[in-house]
Amino acid sequence: PGVQTVSIVLDPKPATREIADQISRIAASEAWDCIREGGRVEIGSLVSRDIWEVLEWLARYPDDEMPDETRAADMIIVTADPSVLDSRARRNWLVGGAEGVPDVDHERVGLAWPL
């Protein structure tokens, strides 16, 4: 009770390794923000308060199997596929130059790092 849980939803099939790497970096940053404030992160099959566990999981992304559907009340979506964006999410990140973005509030980022 009282512990924030953030569900991070990642693009299940990023088109390139470059896109997957950018998605992982953004997800790691979001996870760190939550864990630093005492919360826990749900990402794929992992639920953790340990940033190192999250980083190890992200190091295997997208090779680990992604769940079909993860939709928690407090979710953050990081994807290159505009159809994955969800208006119920706390924050939506769209990686790359995808066209046809739905009418959902989102942050758009390219592939360069730092953002």
Could you walk me through the main structural features you see in this protein, from its secondary elements to its overall organization?
The chain is of the alpha/beta class. 26% of the residues lie in helices and 23% in strands. The chain has helices at 17-36, 51-60, and strands at residues 5-10, 40-43, 46-48, 75-79, 91-95, 107-109. A six-stranded mixed sheet has the order 3-2-1-4-5-6, with helices on one face. A hairpin with a 2-residue loop joins strand 2 (40-43) and strand 3 (46-48). The longest helix is centred in the first third of the chain and has 20 residues, at 17-36. The protein is globular and about 40 Å long.
Quick description:
The protein has two helices and six strands. The chain has 115 residues and is of the alpha/beta class.
Helical content band: 25-40%
Written as H for each helix and E for each strand, in order along the chain, the element string is EHEEHEEE
Uncertain regions spanning at least 5 consecutive residues: none
Class based on secondary structure composition and strand pairing: alpha/beta
Rg, please? 13 Å
Number of strands: 6
Characterize the overall form: globular
Average pLDDT, to the nearest integer? 86
Strand order within the widest sheet? Answer: 3-2-1-4-5-6
Strand content: 15-25%
